[in-house]
Predict the structure.
Amino acid sequence: MANALQLENDDNQISDNEFHAISRLVYKNFGIVLGEEKRSLVVGRLHGCLSKRKISSFSQYLNLIKSDMTGEILSELVNQISTNFTSFYREASHFEYLADKALPEVMKMLSSRRSNDLRIWCAACSSGEEAYTIQMTVMKKLGLQYGTMNAGLLATDISAKVLDLAKAATYTAEQVATVHPDLKKSYFKVLPDGRHEVKPNVRDQILFRRFNLMNETFPFKTPFQIIFCRNVMIYFDEETRKKLIGKFYELLEPGGYLFIGHSETVPLDCTRFKAILPAVYRKPF
């Protein structure tokens, strides 16, 4: 006899009301737009959550979320819904520009006011590959000078699940295939099982924290010189994107840089950012 609780990966298993309720909940809390084309994705990704709790409907799951004062089930929801594809040196031209242009300009800015406070934020770090790529790029470029800096990287994500992976800092040989052999030698340790672990001299420079980009207030008192927020705004609607870009603008120092995904754009009619390269913007002085 079939398990009465079993849900098949079929969008017929979720009613219109249930899907729209989940869509509203996800948009309200995380800014992610779930259109009708995402219906099957929602069913497929939440199937395991219902099975784990031995419940047979999405309405029951929604009721659990509403009654859960800890926020744990809501966190589980975004862990399942959010897309976390990433890789080392993804969209590599950004890291070339960071090393060759943006970082030298930022160092000039700091030198002009005799500051050594280098502040970089990776605002959607996923499982850590992007954050470690930024950190390796900075350390390689600055060399011994890095040790004289009050430097470090803030890396945030909405998903506690991927943040745990980022903090573990351990990746398969396939995952680090895009890292240059010299950088692997300098910044990774090969484990007995063949996986690669980021060395402490890199890992300890990154502060991983859970943070929701939909928060009304951002708790950062000191501005950043560089912000990476790549391949996340594609899931937001135009109003949410504009609001977030405005916050990034306020959080950057004059002369600071914003890096976004190549499939994303900053609407220049509603911001003072200056376009530098595809998906690279600078705040004017």
The first helix runs from residue 16 to 30. The chain is about 40% helix and 15% strand. Confidence is low (pLDDT under 50) at residues 1-12.
